[in-house]
TrEMBL record:
Organism in which the protein naturally occurs: Magallana gigas
Protein name per UniProt: I/LWEQ domain-containing protein
Domain called I/LWEQ: residue spans: 1-135
Molecular function terms, GO-annotated: actin filament binding; clathrin adaptor activity; clathrin light chain binding; phosphatidylinositol-3,4-bisphosphate binding; phosphatidylinositol-3,5-bisphosphate binding
Keyword Cytoplasm in record: yes
Localization terms from the record: Cytoplasm
Length: 179
């Protein structure tokens, strides 16, 4: 679960830096890592002694993941906004007819996007419904994940992802500074 999400995040980050990917993909992957980490902590709290030092360390590592997720998401949104602002059109030179044509094309595009958004939200709901069904059947923990993180303790797994999550956050901060 964690390894796959981390790999997705790294691939999304690489694509974004190369100009081939979307910042939204990176944001989703980052949020998935934070959510998976939170799930791990909750599951550990259910099974572990509340006063356990390892549980305390795991909770602290989870807070670090959440912090780094915020940095990655914030950096991605900021970079996306900078790029978007650079791509805005200047409409000051349009004639009345050209402006009306642009307006109508924009209205058509808005309607298309609204329909696409509605369909994608439905799809997301169906995927989540299936995910919850599958998680209920086997607890969601029985998949063998590429990268074999099975031998890592929960704290070690979170630490590994925290490290790479922060590396990505720092990379995007650098990206913004050089942009």
């Amino acid at each position: 679960m964690y390894q796959h999400t981390y790999v997705d995040q790294m691939e999304a980050a690489d694509k974004v830096v190369k100009g081939e990917g979307k910042f939204e993909e990176l944001i989703v992957c980052s949020n998935e890592i934070a959510a998976s980490t939170a799930q791990l902590v909750v599951a550990s709290k259910v099974k572990a002694d509340r006063k356990s030092k390892k549980l305390s360390e795991l909770s602290e590592a989870s807070r670090g993941v959440t912090s780094c997720t915020g940095k990655v998401v914030g950096s991605a949104r900021e970079a996306s906004q900078i790029i978007e602002e650079q791509n805005l059109m200047d409409f000051t030179s349009l004639s009345l007819m050209q402006a009306k044509k642009e307006e109508m094309q924009s209205q058509v595009r808005v309607l298309e996007l609204e329909k696409e958004l509605e369909m994608e939200r439905y799809k997301l709901g169906q995927v989540r419904k299936r995910h919850y069904q599958l998680a209920g059947e086997n607890g969601g923990w029985e998949e063998n994940i590429e990268g074999n993180t099975e031998n890592l303790s929960p704290l070690d797994a979170v630490s590994v992802f925290l490290h790479y999550h922060c590396v990505i956050a720092n990379s995007f901060s650098w990206f913004l500074l050089t942009f």
